[in-house]
Design brief:
Length: 215
């Protein structure tokens, strides 16, 4: 467990987050139950990461004139299926009529994103193809992402509980120049996969090609 997560988990309760953030939601009374539902789906560390991503998305939306509700919502829900077993993810995707594609089958690390996109409507009742798509590609990237989807991609990488060499540089870049940050983070994630000699998801390859050609 990293030091920050350890510190948080000693004193942060769901109600604390609610007091801090509920005002950004149109129906603040729903925020408590939304947080509780998120907390019930994922472990403590992933919950803190999700709140960190929520926080980062709110800041980006406020700075760059996007809808804070939509931004915050996908920040909070993007990893809702992260801690599910592979068997549970495939079972749920089958049940929702959205089985994994042939391309996705070889990349279990991204399955949670595919299921999270489906759960947005199926479990949380939010019908928004745009937001679902942002969740769907949050770990791979993809060609033609909306600004909100690109925000989610970068916020996921630099939210406050993230700790890795170089995160500070990306964090500064995300808030000063999110478009450049998006491309740098996409390249960094791809380089990381290549350095481990692991296969790259085709969506990441397509995204890199798309954005390095000026999209
Ligand atoms: Fe994720
Ligand atoms: Fe995440």
């Amino acid at each position: 467990m990293n030091p920050t997560t350890g510190l948080f988990s000693n004193f942060v309760k769901v109600s604390d987050f609610s007091c801090l953030y509920a005002g950004h939601f149109p129906l603040s009374t729903d925020f408590d139950s939304l947080l509780t539902r998120v907390e019930n789906h994922i472990g403590r560390e992933r919950f803190l990461h999700s709140v960190g991503t929520y926080h980062t998305m709110l800041l980006l939306a406020q700075m760059y004139g996007k809808d804070p509700f939509a931004a915050g919502l996908i920040g909070l829900l993007h990893d809702i299926a992260h801690d599910f077993s592979s068997a549970k993810i495939t079972r749920m995707l089958e049940r929702y009529g959205a089985p994994l594609s042939g391309e996705d089958l070889k990349f279990p690390q991204i399955w949670h994103a595919r299921l999270g996109a489906v759960m947005l409507e199926a479990v949380f009742g939010i019908h928004s193809p745009e937001l679902a798509s942002a969740i769907r590609v949050h770990s791979t990237g993809a060609p033609g992402m909306t600004p909100l989807a690109r925000f989610l991609f970068v916020a996921d990488y630099v939210e406050p509980t993230r700790h890795f060499d170089g995160v500070e540089r990306f964090r500064k870049m995300v808030f000063s120049d999110p478009d450049t940050a998006f491309l740098c983070i996409l390249e960094d994630k791809i380089n990381h996969v290549r350095s481990k000699q692991l296969p790259l998801h085709p969506d990441s390859v397509r995204a890199l090609k798309f954005y390095t050609k000026g999209g």
